[in-house]
Amino acid sequence: MSLQRISVIGAGAWGTALAILAQRAGRDVTLWPRRAEQADALRGARENAAYLPGVPLDPGLHIETDLARALDADAVLYAQPAQHFRGFCRNAAPLWKGAALVIAAKGIECETGALLNEIAAEALAAAPVVILSGPSFAAEAARGLPTAVALAGDRADLVEALMAALAHGAFRPYGSDDPIGVEVAGAVKNVLAIACGIVLGKGLGENARAALITRGLAEVTRLALAKGGRAETLMGLAGIGDLILTCTSLKSRNTSLGFDLGQGKPLAEILAARRSVAEGVTTAAAVATLAARIGVEMPIAGAVHRILAEPAAIDDEIRALLARPLKRES
Ligand SMILES: NC(=O)C1=CN([C@@H]2O[C@H](COP(=O)(O)OP(=O)(O)OC[C@H]3O[C@@H](n4cnc5c(N)ncnc54)[C@H](OP(=O)(O)O)[C@@H]3O)[C@@H](O)[C@H]2O)C=CC1
Ligand SMILES: O=C(CO)COP(=O)(O)O
């Protein structure tokens, strides 16, 4: 199977980086920004100055605003925020021409607690789905710095074809047959990163952060298992790999959101200054909804959700986390 024509939905940082990477890998790439003004700006400047400054767009990259034309591809990569995924599927369903759907967003639907692959199965059933996740800051990947990601799907032929279509230079996709584990890992690490940022912002130290990452890994593993994923997936790129990247760097929007909160900045002020961090707030709510619905114990994710809903509770929530009864590690 050859996947030559690749379209990317969403021209934020990650969508633009993925389009650049696919083009460097030799594919015929179309980037679909949702707004016509952004399309004009990209065509004019040949750079995504708003979301990925300093990385030129190759003249061969097609910028397309017509969704039907963009969906006429071998593979369509979805790289808009997770909360807009259902809307995308609904708009795309009548126009779908048989492409594979690669979900590159990291999140869970807030209203329902649904994973994005579950939404795709309901709302875009015609599309075979692959999840792309793992430790990958868009700015580094787009600059050609070494980056390894996971591509996970039930169909081995499709996963392999996508690996071949996207791999180039130092961008290395690794295959997986556990899309649920990979998807859960990518969504929940955003919430754990907020927790790590809070702890650092509060000055609680690096020991505390390491403990949070480790206990967070246990939490996300419980959720992945409950959803039908595999524990070993959490030891791979999408699990521990992305936790290491995101939870230890203030380049992460989620970690920096937590850091600012920990430093006592009002949430409204943080969100007003950087719109992009808002996705972490909805993901925290979504993870809490899902965990409660299926009865998975996620104390760190729960605390983050409550802190974001009521930032004044930050000290009480941290105290409560530290006061949890001691038990054997599992
Ligand atoms: N940035 C990164 O390093 C990585 C991000 N991801 C994931 O990729 C996804 C996209 O993130 P990223 O590219 O960073 O986002 P950015 O913050 O860079 O850009 C936001 C994007 O969301 C779009 N958007 C805003 N409102 C809507 C809406 N109502 N409907 C549809 N799209 C909308 C914006 O379009 P507009 O400009 O028109 O408002 C823009 O394309 C997220 O799920 C993120 O977790 C995954 C790996 C790495
Ligand atoms: O997913 C990412 C890196 O893998 C990007 O993380 P942030 O959204 O926290 O910046």
TrEMBL record:
HAMAP family: NAD_Glyc3P_dehydrog. SUPFAM superfamilies: 6-phosphogluconate dehydrogenase C-terminal domain-like, NAD(P)-binding Rossmann-fold domains. Residues 178-316 form the Glycerol-3-phosphate dehydrogenase NAD-dependent C-terminal domain. It comes from the Bacteria. Pathway: Membrane lipid metabolism; glycerophospholipid metabolism. InterPro entries: 6-PGluconate_DH-like_C_sf, 6PGD_dom2, G3P_DH_NAD-dep, G3P_DH_NAD-dep_C, G3P_DH_NAD-dep_N, NAD(P)-bd_dom_sf. This is Glycerol-3-phosphate dehydrogenase [NAD(P)+].
